[in-house]
Design a protein that fits this description.
The chain is mainly alpha-helical. The protein has a single domain, classed as Mitochondrial carrier fold, CATH 1.50.40.10. Helices cover 77% and strands 0% of the residues. The protein is built from eleven helices and no strands. Helix 2 packs antiparallel against helix 11, helix 7 crosses helix 8 and helix 8 runs antiparallel to helix 11. The two termini are 12 Å apart. The N terminus is likely disordered.
């Protein structure tokens, strides 16, 4: 169980376990992510590629998944360790988990956002290769183009983590107390699936806005990255249905992904620590 082993776990093990978890999810569930992106695209599902080439952009995602997940878990676990070392916070575990997750997401987005920008444009059929997209962004928009949607992504990930991680840790703790021993990796997977699915459903509008910003034409208003403006624009054009575009594949993807991601992470930590 991660919450019980983290005080005896090295920085090196957090890196490895996080990296393994990240690659496992992105490689296994990439088609669902592609379908979700195309459903949210302003060009529509069919024009963005439909069900064709659902593995477009997999190389970019795989390249970024390990360092992103590793950076998240290193920050998450060490922030949690720091807060728990102060006796005041030990009685406020949900606050500890929420704060640790928030710091983890801010750090992870430094890698995640450039990867997402390139990956989603590849998924939406903008160019024939991720390399071409990367070069095009640098030529037309500079480094800032790779970080388009950074704040929107952070504003999506923090509420998501505020819901997912306290639920995940809380369910594991409840299950552990009920059976009188730490949860096993498969039980951690079940907790990850439930907590991830709930968080995914609630934060779908933020994910839709993030996708629109990343796919927007550089000269458009949406490319400016103002979250409230984009959400309002989507609502007036498509209503509630537009704000929750892609909710089914998103919930499926993150529920299954949460099971794999958090289950593999706990299993990897147990294995490395032994």
């Amino acid at each position: 169980m991660a919450t019980e082993t983290s005080f005896n776990t090295s920085f090196h093990n957090f890196l490895i376990a996080g990296g393994i978890a990240g690659i496992s999810v992105d490689a296994g569930l990439f088609p669902l992510d592609t379908i979700k992106t195309r459903l949210q695209s302003p060009d529509g599902f069919v024009k963005s590629g439909g069900f064709r080439g659902v593995y477009s952009g997999l190389g970019t995602a795989a390249l970024g998944s390990a360092p992103t997940a590793a950076l998240f878990f290193c920050t998450y676990e060490n922030t949690k360790r720091l807060l728990n070392s102060n006796g005041f916070f030990t009685i406020w575990q949900p606050i500890v988990h929420m704060t640790s997750a928030a710091f983890g997401e801010v750090a992870a987005c430094l890698i995640r956002v450039p990867v997402e920008v390139v990956k989603q444009r590849r998924q939406a059929g903008f160019h024939s290769s991720s390399k071409h997209i990367f070069r095009s962004i640098l030529q037309l928009e500079g480094i800032a183009g790779l970080y388009r949607g950074y704040m929107t992504t952070v504003l999506r990930e923090i509420p998501f983590s505020f819901i997912q991680f306290p639920l995940w840790e809380g369910m594991k703790s409840f299950w552990s107390d009920a059976q009188g021993r730490p949860v096993s990796p498969w039980q951690s997977s079940v907790c990850g699936a439930v907590s991830g699915g709930i968080a995914a459903a609630v934060t779908t509008p933020l994910d839709v806005a993030k996708t629109r910003i990343m796919l927007a034409d550089p000269a458009s208003i949406e490319a400016g990255g103002k979250l409230s403006l984009v959400l309002r624009s989507i609502y007036f054009a498509q209503g509630i249905k537009g704000l929750f575009a892609g909710i089914v594949p998103r919930v499926l993807w993150i529920s299954i992904g949460g099971a794999i991601f958090l289950g593999v992470y706990d299993k990897a930590l147990v294995t490395l620590n032994s």
